[in-house]
Amino acid sequence: MKLDLGLKWPNDIYAYGVSKLGGSIFNTQVDSIEAIVNLGVGFNLSNSKPTLCLNDVIAQYNAKHSTTLPPLSYEKTFALIFNKLEQLYDRVQRDGIEVLQQEYYRYWLHQDAEISMIGTEGESLQGTIVGIDEYGFLLVKKQPSGETVSVHPDGNSFDMMQGLIVPKFN
Fold first, then answer.
1. Between residues 28 and 157, which one has the greater pLDDT?
2. Which residue ranges does the record assign to the BPL/LPL catalytic domain (predicted)?
3. Can you give the three-state secondary structure of 37-66, one letter per residue?
4. pLDDT digits over 113-160, tens only?
5. Which of 53, 21, 27 is nearest to 40 (CA)?
6. Which residues pair with 131 in a beta bridge?
7. What is the model's pTM?
8. Long-range contacts: 11-20, Cβ < 8 Å, 24+?
């Protein structure tokens, strides 16, 4: 069974590529001997209004595939999330950060998406999303030059679902 869920860069969880179900936030502090990561996750599990919730997605999957998957309880959802995080942590410790990157790319919604950008002079630029750099910023291949650039969220306005990135200027 595979529900139609995906990740909108950098940290939103979407159903069907159009309805936001939740998101995550990570705060990391690193010193010379350890890294401390605080993780927050918000998820719409059961509230159907005004948008969509995960249990709606499960019900729609059941209707489409003639299955009887039960709705998720809060306890079951937390258990699934924490078990998956523990598995990912163990895999990253054993095999490296690439494991997490591969898992992220399995679900993200933007690979090879064509986008429009507004350049520093106000000119319209076209690009193709090609990945995420080592710092988690979006990698865009500018057209027609082929130059790959990192796009930083602190200096840009994103409407990723509309394929538009607009730099903010002071």
1. 28
2. 1-93
3. EEEEEEECCCCCCCCCCHHHHHHHHHHHHC
4. 898 877 767 778 888 999 998 888 889 999 999 999 887 655 555 555
5. 27
6. 139
7. 0.77
8. 13/43, 14/109, 15/52, 15/54, 15/57, 16/57, 17/109, 18/161, 19/51, 19/52, 20/44, 20/51
